[in-house]
Amino acid sequence: MPKAKYTKRKDGRYQANILIGHDEETGKKIFHPTIYAYTINELETKIAEVRNALDKGIYANDKGYTLKEYADKWYTTNKPSYEINTAKMYQRLVYTHIIPSLGEIQLKKLTKSDVQGMINKNIKHPRNCQQIRMCLIQILNSAIEDGLLYKNVAKNVKLPRYSRPEKRPLNAIEEKALSAAILSPKEKAFLDILHYTGLRLGETLALSTKDIDFSFGKIIVKNVVVFDSNTPVLKFIPKTDAGRRKVDMPTVLQDSLKSYITTLNSEYLFQMERKDGFMSKSSYRKFWNNICKKLNQTVGGTEDIQPIHDLTAYVFRHNYATMLFYADVDIKEAQYLLGHKDIKITLDVYTHLKKEKTSAGKKLDAFLA
After folding, report:
1. Which residue among 33, 142, 187, 263 is least enclosed by CB atoms within 10 Å?
2. Is position 366 within any domain?
3. CB within 8 A of 79, min separation 6: which ones?
């Protein structure tokens, strides 16, 4: 075990420098940050703690990093590998929550209590708490891999209970509105694609006339539009990605798209109204709100009373998954049609629907009939 040097300072304190290893590339000696104490006994106790950590393999030198400095480095290093929306999420978590709350704390001095305190301040937003902890765990795991820490104090922090928003298909009022509403060809084609293919919003916005194969009755999904703030960005889906697929078009959808495509002057199906280019986030929101307004008016809604009030593109996607289930489409085929990377996602949907289909109440009704 390396020996410590004791030196007495002018201020009366003792100090020691402990050799903890050598740099693998240069061979230079690496020392633990200088240890200070007012007595020899106190100094030796601190030295023993360092040596004990070295013996157990739990020693780490944070090199004086604060959480702010390391979190910033972590985000800057990893940002290029993230998708646009993922990068924005981490940016929000790091610079809006983690750094303002805990940034000035030195890495090695960060405690579970510090992290729990930050979580408690956000307790009214359970999903946000989940994301904050998830992000901090990744940051501290990276610090461990860099040899700056030996344990992750964020792992066992308690979170408030979070209930995911319930996924739902279209309800009876929405179905009625869809069949009766007076929509523009563009609006009708957009809703029909969502309704009969379950495509994600970004996949639908990226469709071109070349992606509609009437000869085989398929829609080819190979691109997706993502929003960088308000700006639409077209991204190519790799062949290895489950999102790249060919989805069957029912006859009703083929008829709808054949009619709509004859009205187009551009390659892409859903461009901006007054200029070329994909819809921006704000223009899409306006487009969707106008659709919902027409659907509401169809079923007697007003500005104050809106029977249809939480309809999203994802509701159509879940509705499509529901239709696949009741049409007895095999789960592997459903996984492919929905573009799920993990079959567990499809299985969760099917399991939930199966429970609804075979509920105890329905079984009792059948028994008593």
Report:
1. 263
2. no
3. 87, 90, 91
How many domains is the chain built from?
3
3-state secondary structure of 44: helix
* Domain match, 40 and 116 both: no
Quote the pLDDT of residue 303.
82
Average pLDDT over the chain, rounded to an integer: 88
Q: At 51, is the secondary structure helix, strand, or coil?
A: helix
Distance of CA 347 to the CA centre of its chain: 20
3-state helix, strand, coil in the chain (%, to 5): 50, 10, 35
Q: How confident is the model at residue 71 (pLDDT cuts 50, 70, 90)?
A: very high
pLDDT score of 196: 96
Please give the structure tokens belonging to residue 32: 């633990």
**Binning pLDDT at 50, 70 and 90, where does residue 184 land?**
very high
Q: What domain range is 40 assigned to?
A: 5-56
Cβ atoms of residues 252 and 191 within 8 Å: no
For residue 3, the number of C-alpha atoms closer than 13 Å in the C-beta half-sphere is: 2
In contact, 58 and 89? CB cutoff 8 Å: no
Which distant-in-sequence residues (6+ apart) come within 8 Å of 359 by Cβ? none
19 and 127 inside one domain:
no
Q: Residue 358: its pLDDT value, please?
A: 64
DSSP 34: P
Burial 346-368 (b: 16+ CB within 10 A, else e): beebbebbeeeeeeeeeeeeeee
Summarised one tens digit per residue, pLDDT across range 145-163 is: 887 887 899 999 999 987 7
DSSP string, 287-355: HHHHHHHHHHHHTT--SS--S--S--HHHHHHHHHHHHHHTT--HHHHHHHHT-SSHHHHHHHHHHHHH
Phi, psi of 66 (to 5 degrees): -90, 165
Distances (CA, A) of 226 to 143, 223, 244, 284: 31, 10, 15, 12
